[in-house]
Amino acid sequence: MKKLSVSILGTGFVGLCSAVCFAHRGIKVIASTHNEEKANLINQGIAPFYEVELEEILKEVVNRNDGNFKCLVGRKQAILDTDISMIIVGTPMGEDKRIDLTLMEKAAKEIGEVLRMKENYHLTVVRSTVIPGTTRNLVGDTIQKISGKELGKDFGLCMQPEFLAEGRSIKDTFYPDRIVIGEFDKKSGDILQELYESFYGDHLKKAPILRINLESAELVKYGNNCLLATKISYANEFANLAELVPGVDVVQVMKGVGLDYRICERFLGAGVGFGGSCFPKDINAIKAFAQSKGYDPRLLNAVLAINDDQAIHIVDLAENTLNNLSNKKIALLGLAFKPGTDDMRQAPSIRIINELKRRNASNIIGYDPKAKESAREVLGNKIQYANNIEELLKDADCAIITTEWDEFKILKPSKFIRLMKNPFVIDGRRIFSFEEFDKELTFRAIGRVALK
Ligand SMILES: NC(=O)c1ccc[n+]([C@@H]2O[C@H](COP(=O)([O-])OP(=O)(O)OC[C@H]3O[C@@H](n4cnc5c(N)ncnc54)[C@H](O)[C@@H]3O)[C@@H](O)[C@H]2O)c1
């Protein structure tokens, strides 16, 4: 049987990772972008952004030169020459915090235009995160209108939510824990299942395929992200409670809670709060969707409010010790929203920096092992950028752990004492041993009060 081929519309985190993983296992893939510079980089085996393992695999599939992988500028040839098109464009948060579906609509139009001239049956799969109804009503209808073809007869439609996490995108793409296929009709779902059977083989014994309708699949993604974000805000709520009880440590409390098999320990880390390209935008998108239907999502409102307050709390901790922030050097260890990526979208560091600035801090410096350039694009000259930890901490009055990179986890109190003007550390990610740090320097940690 002929192997199905795939075009990927959108070469961001999800699109490019999917494309290289498919090609790595022998599936013919044409990635497509409108950005010529990006296409050139990708075709040379250079990843346009940092993601663990991505560039190695990209180089490998490019160097194989077996015709299974290329990146084209524009969509036409990519759609014409493949059986399945996956739309993996950004669905960002608009000014009004609602989902912005401009790129999704554009991609659907592009598919429609190509399908007008394509004879073979073609399957479109929406893999971006979209609010319920988008796949059927925006993508399906647009393709149908523009192509003049009939959905269900001439072309198929699926919605497959993506669950990969940045920093482990490649691993998650190769070894997902489930595959959710939302299908317009059985034929569409069967074709996508066939692709994944050939891609995953035996792994499907561990990763069930769930076949449901389009709207349920769209909502699964929001259900997933909202629950994970809720766990984080829940841990932060308990961190705030723990700080009211001397001797209590939220890390131990959440460990105790997480050992319950019904709950699990993951995503119960108290700290600076969540950020990234997904949680804030997805919660806001589904919140706006709920409101548009006349429902007020009280739990989601609380999850967002608790998250925003964590930045204020971190700055409170700094101000309570330093009194006045205006003439103090404040050093941020980490700028990216999490380790393993240079992604700055909605990073907690941005909220903390804005709050520091609001309280007149003028000497803020940041260091991130990977996100220096992407941080500069977002933060400009609001802060200074150190090239290494030594430069960052030199003569600083306060150090705040904002991203839990491995190279920070191994730091000892002696390093802070040697380099800083006033050794004062705020552990916003709970990466240090409280006992060890609290003994040797001024130490504040989310979810635990110092006894001295
Ligand atoms: N990043 C994640 O961890 C993650 C995880 C699961 C799901 N998702 C969802 O997957 C989707 C893509 O996310 P991402 O992080 O890969 O986004 P991204 O912003 O990294 O990439 C989006 C891609 O859209 C395309 N694009 C940009 N401008 C365009 C334009 N003017 N016209 C057409 N296409 C354009 C580009 O190829 C761009 O790289 C989103 O809906 C997101 O919510 C993301």
Overview of this protein structure:
By secondary structure, this protein is α/β, with parallel strands linked by helices. It folds into two domains: about 5-205, NAD(P)-binding Rossmann-like Domain (Rossmann fold, 3-Layer(aba) Sandwich); about 230-445, Rossmann fold (3-Layer(aba) Sandwich), CATH 3.40.50.720. The protein has helices at about 15-25, 35-45, 55-65, 75-80, 100-115, 135-145, 170-175, 185-200, 215-240, 250-260, 280-290, 300-320, 350-360, 370-380, 390-395, 405-410, 415-420, 435-440, and strands spanning about 5-10, 30-35, 70-75, 85, 120-125, 155-160, 180-185, 210-215, 330-335, 365, 385, 400, 425, 440-445. The strands form two sheets. The chain has an eight-stranded mixed β-sheet, sandwiched between helices. It has a six-stranded parallel β-sheet with strand order 11-10-9-12-13-14, with helices on both faces. Helix 1 (about 15-25) packs across helix 3 and helix 9 crosses helix 10 (about 250-260). The mean pLDDT is about 95. The protein binds nicotinamide-adenine-dinucleotide. Nicotinamide-adenine-dinucleotide binds near residues 34, 90, 106 and 162. Nicotinamide-adenine-dinucleotide (NAD) binds next to helix 1 and helix 5.
